[in-house]
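[audit] Reproducing an earlier prediction to check determinism. Same input, same settings, fresh worker. If the tokens differ from the archived copy the diff job will pick it up downstream; this log only records the rerun itself.
[audit] input (278 residues):
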Amino acid sequence: MPTKIIAVANQKGGVGKTTTTVNLAAALAEEGHSILVIDLDPQANASSALGFEGIEEGGLYRGLIGEIPMKDLITSTRLAHLALIPADLELAGAEIDIARHDQHLIQLKIMLEEVKESGRFSYIFIDSPPSLGVLMSNALTAADEVLIPIQCEYYALEGLGKLVGVMEQLRKTGINPGLAMTGLLMTMFDMRTNLSSAVMKDVRTHFQEVVFDTVIPRSIRISEAPSFSQTILEYDSKGPGAVAYRALASEFLKRQVAGMAFIGGASSAQVVDTSKSH
């Protein structure tokens, strides 16, 4: 199967994008799949979770502006089969610098072509920033699919229509005609509250099979793990958070093998076969 690029995206902050990127990547790597994580968020939380903090230069920014080939920015992590292109301190200024390029919406796609075509990785995960700016647009343009985490809280669906709308626009304009949704992932589920159950029911009613069966629980251990620069699989390997992300990895792979992804929004979402794409 060709390398597939998955953007983990939601313009709403605090929904578990970075947590999902890092832990899903780690769970897939644990199964022997060769994985690359690209930290496209200037906050660099994915980088720090994998042991890289405060990189001043030689990170993703230089690759985005074309000064260093992306393949030269790939660094190994302590986890077998898991590599990283870390964010650096200059990435915060990338929105302005990339906007100066004629091909500013496809800059990341262009710069990643050599890495993708090398076949070195099974999956490339992009941890996207919480906005619909230039960096997020580049992630969506470079991606084959988008995995969207949604927290089990009252405003879960707020702004989701806008993100789906941007994806639809990228398809219709031909910038990224094959872009599809891997699925929606419910995060921060608290079984003790009626609200979490109500939100999950609402999302499943609207999006039906687009929503992953796996649900990520609200967990202090998941929240603690990044402060130790660890994934939840390392920090609490047998805990409910690690169990959930391993289950997500299994479900993710089943969808990939089946070529199962989605286009459209809400109850109108249609299944598309991506098994022969890209």
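[audit] rerun output stored. Observation attached for the diff report: The mean pLDDT is 90.
[audit] end
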